[in-house]
Design goal:
The complex is a heterodimer of chains A (about 450) and B (about 425).
Chain A: H1 2-31, H2 39-76, H3 87-101, H4 111-149, H5 156-196, H6 199-204, E1 208-209, E2 224-225, H7 228-259, H8 262-277, H9 280-301, H10 311-336, H11 339-347, H12 352-381, H13 384-389, H14 407-415, H15 424-458
Helix pairs in contact in A: 1-2, 1-4, 2-4, 2-5, 3-4, 5-15, 7-10, 7-12, 8-10, 9-10, 10-12, 11-12, 12-15, 14-15
Chain B: H1 14-57, E1 65-71, H2 87-98, H3 104-111, H4 118-128, E2 136-142, H5 145-151, H6 168-179, E3 183-184, H7 190-193, H8 206-237, H9 242-254, H10 259-273, H11 281-306, H12 309-317, H13 322-351, H14 354-358, H15 379-388, H16 393-423
Antiparallel strand pairs in B: 1-2, 1-3
Helix pairs in contact in B: 1-16, 2-4, 8-11, 8-13, 8-15, 10-11, 11-13, 12-13, 13-16, 15-16
The chains are: A mainly alpha (about 450), B mainly alpha (about 425).
Chain lengths: ~450, ~425
C-alpha cells in the first residue's frame, strides 16, 4: 500500500510537471521573451508543490503512526489492565498484541489481548486510509495553489532555486545531525548506566563481569562493571598492532618515495592499498583460521603456554590491516617535504640514506605522527578482527600470549542477543561506546590538526 | 633539524676516509634493504591471506552429489494430494535399494549419507512435475557434509579410525556408492541459489546476497543525493563562516568514527526510538548510508574543485544563474569523479560488518528477504555466522563466501577505476 502511495506521489508530480510546463509554453507563445522563467521551471515549481509536502507528510506519518497507535491501544485497554506494569512489561504486552494481530500466536492469548488485537488491526486500517486521503488532499491543494500562481511574469525559477538551496542546506545539516545523534544517544544511555553503576567503579574498577541476567530464568554472573581490564586489553592489542605496522608502514613509504622508480611505485602502491580495502571480517577469519593456530604451535614449540585466542594473533592481524594507513600518510608527508631540502642535503655530499634519516624524516615527522595517531585510533575502534580472534573474558595482563578482551568485543557481545534498555548489561555497551567515541575523536582531532598545520608549513 | 655534525677525522688519512665512506654506503644500503623488506612483508602477508582463502575455499565451489533413483509409487504418494505423501518412506526405500544386503546399524549409517533434507528435495521435485507419480524419478542429491569432505579428500582415510570423523563401516558404504558410479562433483550452484541452512551441504549465500543488495540499495538511494547536495552547498554556495567551518571539521571527523559507533547509533535511534524492525536491510542501509555520507561528500567536493573556474565564469557570462551554472555545467563535468568515489564508498559499505551485527543482521534466516523490511543477513555477517559454526563443512563455505565477497568488491573497484580512466577529464 505504501509502495502504491509513493508511486502515486511520483505520478502526480510528473503530471504536475507536464501541466506546469505546458502552461509555461503557453506563456512563451503569448508573451515571448517577456516571460521570466523557462517553461521547465514552471513545471518544476508545480511538481515541487505537489510532491514534496506529500512525501514529508508520509515520512512523518510513518515515523509517528506506531507511537500514536500504541498510545491509543493502551488507552483503550480495560481499566486497570496496565496498572502496576513496568515499562518493559507494557512493551511486552504491546508486542504480544501485535503478534496476535499478525497471526503469530503462542499458546492461547487472553480475551483482552484478542480484543486489543482486533482494535489494533482496525486502527491500522484507519491510519492507512487516512494517510492516503490526507496525502492526496495535500497534493491536490498544493498543485492548485502553485498552478494558480503561474503567470508570464511569475518568477518560477527563483521559487525552484530557493527550494533546491533549502534542500541542500538540509542535507548539509545531515552530517551535523548524525554527530548529534551519536552524541545524544551515547550520552543518554550512558547517563542511565551511570545512574545504576557509579562512574568511579566503571573507570577505576578492576573487575569486569557484565553477563548479568536480563530475564529472571537466565543463569549468569553476579555482575561487575570495572572497565580497566577491558581498556588495558584494548591498549595491548592496539600496541601490538602498532609495533607491527609502524616499521613496516614507514619503511615501505621511505622506499617507495625515495628509492623506488616510478614503475615499481605505481605497481606496489595499489597493492598496499588493497590491504586497506579487505573487509575486516576477512582479517578476522584469517586470524582465527591461520594466525592463531600458527602462534599457538610456535608457542608450544618454545615451551610457552599460549592461549588459543591470544592477544598476539589479533594484534598481529590488526597490524597488517593498519599498515596502509601509516604508509600512505607517511608517503604524503615525505613527498610534501620541499625539493630544496632534499637537494641541499644531497649537494652537501650526504648519501641518500643520510638525507632520509637526518633531513626528510625529521622534516616530515609531524605528518608521519599524524598518520600513526590515525592508525592507532583505527586500531582501537576496529571490531571484527578482535570479535573473532580475541577473548571474551577480561583479564588484567600485558602478556601478549594471554587472551584479553577489548572495548569493541564487549560492545558486540553485550548487544548480540537479548537487549533490554533498562539493564546495566545493555547500557554498559553504550558507556563503552561513549568512551571509544571520545577517545577516537580526540585522537582524530589531534592527528588531523597536526597534519593540516604541517601542510600549511610547507605550502 | 639538520644538525649533521662533521666527523672529526683527519682528511689526510685516505684509509680511514675510505672506511668511513664504506660505512656510510653500507648504512644507505641497509635502509634500502629495510624498505624492501617492509614492502615484501606487507605483500607477503597479503599473499598468505589470499592463498589461505583460495586453498580453503575453492573446494566449496563444487559439491558432491549422489545420483539416486526414487520409486514414486502411488501407494506412498497420492496423485490428488502429493504434498502429503510419505516422502520419508520413499527416501528410505531408495536408500535400501542402493545398499542391498546391508542391515541394522549400517543401514542407519547409510541413511545419513544423503543430506538431511532429501525428502523435501524429492517432494519439491515431484510437486514441480506431478507426472512422475507412479514411475521412477532420478535425482542428484547433495551428499551430507562428512561424505562431501571424504570425497574432496579433506578426511584422510589413512588416519586411525578413532581420529577420523567417519569410521571404516561408513567409508565402506561410501565406496559402494562410488563403485556404482553414482557419485559426481558438479559446480556448487547451491552456494549462490540457496539461503542459509544448518547443514553445510545445503547452505548458500542467496539470502545474504539479496540482503546486501537491499541494504546497499537503501544506502545508495539515501547517501548519493544527500551527499551530492551537501557537497554542492558546502563547496559552491555556503558562506565561509564559523558554522560552515564546524560542518567541515565535523564531516572529516565523522569519516574516522569507528564503525561500531554507527551500529550503536542505529540500535539506539532506528530500532529503539523509531521502532523499525530488527535485522531489516532498511535499517542496515540507513546505518551504512550515514557511514558512507562523509566519503561521498569529501569525494564530491574534490571533484567539484577540480572543475576549472573558466567553465563557471563562461556560464555566468552567458547569463546563467548560479544554480544553472552548477546544475547544467559543473555537476555534469564532475559526475565521473563523483561516481568513482560513490562506488568506492559503496564497496566499503558492502564489506562493513560490525554495525550490522548490532542491528541484528546476523540472524539465522533460511529464506531470502522479499523486501527491505524483512529480516535478512548480509554477505559479511553471513561470513561471520559461518565462521562461528562448528561444522567442518562451514570452514570451506566461509572461505568461499569470502571469495564471493572479494569478487564483488573487486568488480566494484574495477568499475570505479574504469570510470576514472575513461570518463574523467583532466584540464
Amino acid at each position: 500500500m505504501l509502495g502504491y502511495l509513493v508511486l502515486a506521489i511520483i505520478v502526480f508530480s510528473l503530471a504536475a510537471f507536464y501541466v506546469g510546463r505546458s502552461a509555461g509554453n503557453r506563456f512563451v507563445a503569448v508573451e515571448g521573451a517577456a516571460t521570466h522563467s523557462l517553461p521547465g521551471y514552471h513545471g518544476a515549481f508545480v511538481a515541487i508543490w505537489v510532491g514534496v509536502p506529500a512525501l514529508v507528510l508520509v515520512l512523518l506519518w510513518l515515523l509517528f503512526q506506531e507511537t500514536v497507535i500504541d498510545g491509543l491501544l493502551l488507552a483503550g485497554l480495560p481499566a486497570g489492565a496496565i496498572d502496576g506494569l513496568s515499562a518493559a512489561q507494557t512493551r511486552l504486552l504491546l508486542s504480544e498484541i501485535k503478534n496476535v494481530a499478525g497471526g503469530r500466536m503462542f499458546g492461547t492469548p487472553s480475551e483482552m489481548v484478542l480484543e486489543a488485537a482486533q482494535t489494533y488491526l482496525r486502527w491500522q486500517g484507519i491510519a492507512g486510509w487516512a494517510m492516503i486521503v490526507v496525502a492526496v488532499a495535500i497534493m491536490l491543494i498544493g498543485g492548485f495553489l502553485a498552478y494558480t500562481r503561474l503567470a508570464p511574469r511569475f518568477r518560477a525559477r527563483h521559487g525552484v532555486e530557493r527550494f533546491v538551496t533549502a534542500f541542500m542546506i538540509f542535507c548539509s545539516a545531515a552530517a551535523i545531525l548524525t554527530t548529534l545523534g551519536i552524541i545524544v544517544s551515547l550520552v543518554y544511555e550512558s547517563l542511565q548506566f551511570f545512574a545504576m553503576v557509579p562512574a568511579h567503579e566503571f573507570f577505576f574498577g578492576l573487575n569486569w563481569e557484565p553477563q548479568i541476567p536480563i530475564r529472571d530464568d537466565q543463569v549468569a554472573g553476579a555482575g561487575a562493571f570495572g572497565a580497566v581490564p577491558v581498556f588495558l586489553g584494548t591498549l595491548l592489542i592496539a600496541t601490538i598492532a602498532m609495533i607491527i605496522a609502524i616499521p613496516v608502514g614507514i619503511f615501505s613509504a621511505i622506499y617507495l618515495v625515495e628509492y623506488a622508480d616510478k614503475n615499481v611505485r605505481n605497481f606496489i602502491k595499489p597493492i598496499l592499498e588493497i590491504l586497506a580495502g579487505v573487509p575486516t571480517v576477512v582479517y578476522g577469519f584469517f586470524a582465527v583460521l591461520t594466525v592463531a593456530p600458527a602462534i599457538r604451535q610456535a608457542g608450544n614449540l618454545l615451551g610457552l603456554s599460549t592461549s588459543p585466542n591470544s592477544a598476539l594473533a589479533a594484534g598481529l592481524v590488526m597490524g597488517i590491516m593498519v599498515i596502509p594507513f601509516i604508509s600512505s600518510l607517511s608517503d604524503d608527508a615525505l613527498r610534501a617535504v620541499p625539493r630544496s631540502l632534499r637537494d641541499g642535503s644531497l649537494a652537501m655530499g650526504a648519501t641518500r640514506g643520510e638525507t632520509i634519516t637526518k633531513v626528510l624524516v625529521p622534516a616530515a615527522l609531524p605528518g608521519i605522527m599524524g598518520g600513526v595517531l590515525l592508525a592507532f585510533s583505527r586500531a582501537i575502534g576496529e571490531t571484527m578482527i578482535v570479535v573473532m580472534a580475541a577473548g571474551l573474558i577480561a583479564t588484567m595482563t600485558i602478556n601478549p600470549l594471554d587472551s584479553v578482551t577489548t572495548v569493541t568485543v564487549q560492545i558486540v557481545t553485550l548487544l548480540i542477543g537479548d537487549t533490554a534498555f533498562d539493564s546495566p548489561k545493555t547500557l554498559a555497551a553504550f558507556a563503552l561506546g561513549l568512551v571509544l567515541f571520545v577517545v577516537t575523536l580526540c585522537l582524530n582531532v589531534v592527528a588531523l590538526t597536526i597534519v593540516r598545520k604541517y601542510r600549511e608549513q610547507y605550502d | 633539524m639538520t644538525d649533521i655534525t662533521a666527523p672529526s677525522v683527519t682528511f689526510a688519512d685516505p684509509d680511514r676516509m675510505a672506511a668511513l665512506r664504506r660505512r656510510r654506503y653500507a648504512a644507505d644500503l641497509r635502509l634500502r634493504f629495510y624498505g624492501i623488506a617492509a614492502i615484501c612483508t606487507a605483500i607477503g602477508l597479503l599473499g598468505i591471506l589470499v592463498t589461505t582463502l583460495v586453498i580453503g575455499g575453492y573446494s566449496a565451489f563444487t559439491q558432491t552429489h549422489i545420483r539416486v533413483a526414487f520409486d514414486i509409487s502411488e501407494d506412498l504418494v497420492d496423485r490428488g494430494d502429493p504434498a502429503q505423501g510419505r516422502w520419508r518412506t520413499v527416501v528410505s526405500d531408495a536408500i535400501e535399494e542402493m545398499f542391498t544386503g546391508v542391515e541394522g546399524a549400517d543401514m542407519r549409517a547409510a541413511g545419513q549419507i544423503l543430506t538431511n533434507n532429501t525428502q523435501f528435495i524429492v517432494r519439491d521435485a515431484v510437486l514441480r512435475n506431478p507426472g512422475v507419480i507412479g514411475s521412477t524419478l532420478v535425482l542428484e542429491i547433495p551428499a551430507a557434509d562428512p561424505y562431501d569432505q571424504l570425497n574432496k579428500g579433506v578426511i584422510n582415510r589413512d588416519l586411525p579410525e578413532s581420529r577420523r570423523r567417519l569410521n571404516d563401516g561408513q567409508i565402506a558404504l561410501w565406496d559402494v556408492l562410488v563403485e556404482q558410479g553414482r557419485v559426481s562433483r558438479p559446480f556448487n550452484w547451491a552456494l549462490f541459489f540457496n539461503a542459509d541452512s544448518r547443514f553445510p551441504e545445503l547452505a548458500g549465500l542467496a539470502g545474504a546476497i539479496t540482503g546486501s543488495f537491499y541494504a546497499l540499495l537503501v544506502c545508495f538511494v539515501i547517501s548519493f543525493p544527500v551527499g551530492i547536495a551537501a557537497a554542492v552547498y558546502l563547496e559552491e554556495f555556503a558562506p565561509r563562516n564559523r558554522l560552515t567551518d564546524i560542518v567541515e571539521v565535523n564531516i572529516n571527523n565523522l569519516a574516522a568514527v569507528p564503525s561500531i559507533v554507527f551500529g550503536l547509533l542505529g540500535l539506539a535511534v532506528f530500532l529503539q526510538t523509531f521502532g523499525l524492525p530488527r535485522s531489516a536491510p532498511l535499517v542496515g542501509g540507513l546505518v551504512l548510508a550515514l557511514m558512507t555520507l562523509p566519503t561521498i561528500i569529501i569525494v564530491t567536493r574534490a571533484s567539484l574543485k577540480a572543475v576549472p573556474p573558466s567553465i563557471r565564469e563562461a556560464a555566468l557570462g552567458m547569463g546563467a544563474s548560479r544554480h544553472q551554472v552548477i546544475m547544467h555545467h559543473v555537476l555534469p563535468l564532475a559526475l565521473p569523479g563523483i561516481l568513482t568515489g560513490t562506488i568506492i564508498g559503496l564497496a566499503q559499505a558492502l564489506g562493513e560488518t560490525a554495525p550490522l551485527l548490532l542491528i541484528g543482521m546476523n540472524a539465522f534466516i533460511t529464506s531470502p528477504p522479499g523486501g527491505v523490511m524483512e529480516a535478512s543477513t548480509a554477505l559479511p555477517t553471513q561470513i561471520f555466522i559461518w565462521a562461528d559454526s562448528p561444522e567442518r563443512g562451514f570452514v570451506a563455505r566461509t572461505s568461499a563466501g569470502i571469495l564471493v565477497l572479494l569478487g564483488f568488491l573487486i568488480t566494484m573497484n574495477a568499475v570505479a577505476i574504469f570510470l576514472r580512466q575513461h570518463l574523467q577529464r583532466t584540464w
